Amino acid sequence: MVVPTQIIPRHLVEHHDAYRQIIDEHFAAVSQKARNQMRTALKRPLNGFWTEFLWPNLLLDQDGQRREQIEVAVTSTFPLEQRPIYLPISNTVYTPGHNHELAVMASESDPDEVQDQMSVFANPLRIGCQAEDGQWEAPMLRAVGTPFTIFTLEYDPPSEWDRERRLKFLDTQLGWFRNPGTNDLDRPIRPVWEWAAQFSDFRGICANWSGHKSVHIHLIFDTSTVMTEFPELRDQVRTAYTRLWSEMAAEIARVFTQDIDPDPALRLPEQYRKLPNGVFTVEPPKGQSGHLLRIPAGTRVPLLCVWEKLLTRAPKGAARAFVNEAVLKQSAATGSRRIGLHRRQSQIGDMTPDEHQFCSERFDELIKSRVGPNQFPKGAGLHRESSGWIGRLYANEFDKNPSTLIFEDGHRMTSSMVW
Fold first, then answer.
1. Rounded to two decimals, what is the model's pTM?
2. Which residues contact 340 (CB under 8 A, 6 or more apart)?
């Protein structure tokens, strides 16, 4: 299949007028500059990130080489390091096990059709096994190094901010990518670019509207050389990724100071993040909170790329890689010392119904013992999901869908999966 220089998503052409109406009606609440910026993003789509990095790497063999087809039924039973690799893409963050089925389907479609059906992606995974009860092998166990690695930043405004403050912060985020000068880097985001450009494996930035109240900023690194030279480290990347993401977030906070920190959930390579120029269907409101721009539930909105700048070679003068041999080996050694702990955690998936009931009740009792004066949050039990065991909480009396989560792998809490 011949791929054009830049794939233009078909839905941006076919639904241009409908998308333009959404922008005109709802981005006026942000600012006139934001509305004009989104109009330009729709009229002149930037889609090099999908064309050059995501689409060509939907399916890879066990060594990270591109394949147009992979044998799933047989290879899913192979030892982990012998299984093929895929790019997790989906139209929902609730896809069981972040499984490979949509990546396989996408690989059989025209490249300009896929983004119309997808809203999120993650870093590549090995093919997962599916148990007899339908549960998929946890994505956190299948993270793998491939020819590229994506680190994503999202500055998600706190729910306690009033609407005007959140609208202003969305305008601020979009403003990071506006260009007041003649040089493509004459933008507020320039300090982030200059930080990343000190590394020889840096290949660019792509930023897109999340479909709600933030922008997702994707930093792209070429990891083909280090994965080829040290294939034994390919399946040891998860610990290194989380460490590097934290270092990146700290350094960017130093050169690009904001009122809030980036979402720590994105420190995990398998965490879904919004797909540039994909499509997001606005969800029904949770409790009393609706869409920030008051876009009605059920509306399909384009996750427009507001800026991207990609490189075909190492930045001039860059001498060292961000994702390098030393950090991979050090993280692999740390991970090997902790492997017993991860195995003990994964065994929770074999709880009997009585054990599950007992643990869920103890979880709810623990939460109850620590609630505030309004008796919230309230525990909603333990649930087995694609990323492992998750404790769910009702945040307040209006919360009908317990979406505050405590994850087993990092003991972290978040009030949403992806926005």
1. 0.81
2. none
